Amino acid sequence: MKAIVIQEFGSPSSVAVGELPTPDVGDQDVLVEVHAAAVNYPDVLVVQGKYQILPQRPFAPGKDAAGIVRATGAGVTHLKPGDRVVAQLEYGAFAELVSAKGAACFRIPDTMPFEDAAAMGLVYQTAYFALMERGGFQPGETVLVTGAAGGVGSAAIQIVKGLGGIALAGIAGGKQSIGATQLGADAVIDLSVPELRESLREQVRDATNQHGADVLLDTLGGDVFDAALRAMAWSGRAVVIGFAAGRIPEIKANYLLVKNIGVSGLQWSDYRDRQPEKVLAVQQELFGLYEAGAIRPRIAASLPLARAGEALAQLASGQASGKYVLTLQ
Question: For the whole model, what pTM was predicted?
């Protein structure tokens, strides 16, 4: 079968289409004919050999695949051939066929295009778990989302609004502010300004009548996280999602004590592997928000499989605005 084949770790822009064997289907597995696959920032790290979980080579990257069930293992009873599904994977989505655990495959609404289903996989699950499970969000609270132009960030803005919150979109300025407004953000926080340490706090205070952010969802790390922590409200909750800015920050514990701030991390794949019943419940709620018109993935471009390198390179540059989706079949 055709797939993006990683023989050696390297530059995201250099990936190419090759051939891989048709995957085996175990008793608890589902074989999916892939019609759309989302490109996520962790895919960049996997291709570079920098991710915490690296497959044995050769392999196809990709963590979200939407398509049609072609076969099921003997132990899979909730799906059948012909069903339209989205599959959540550790790797393998950038291929014509993928074998996924049945528990990680979800039937998608009849009206949902495959591109939307793929784009609503990892990033929306991550954003929801960060906001609700780790951030303890309550309707009416203010949420600061850094990297709001990216996949997880844009998903988080929509979910916050869909669940009755106030969303502050932390972006790199310029045209990203237009996208944040289109997503429904209540205010835009410019992360590209000089003296970020003071400026970010002042921007958040101005946007919240001096209250600060009840929840921080941080995808960037580095100087942005350092500054954002100072913009938290009393008893705020900060959730560490990633370090797209490069530097892993160190937290001064005395600051947490003074403002009663809680900090937690999110590794979404642990929920997929340890508590699949929670992932299923969240996926059903996300589909419900989609059908109600409260959330829609912001797709920057749908590209053929052969142009996967372009999408990965765009994510690696930090300039992506919206989701990139690969189309197959």
Answer: 0.88
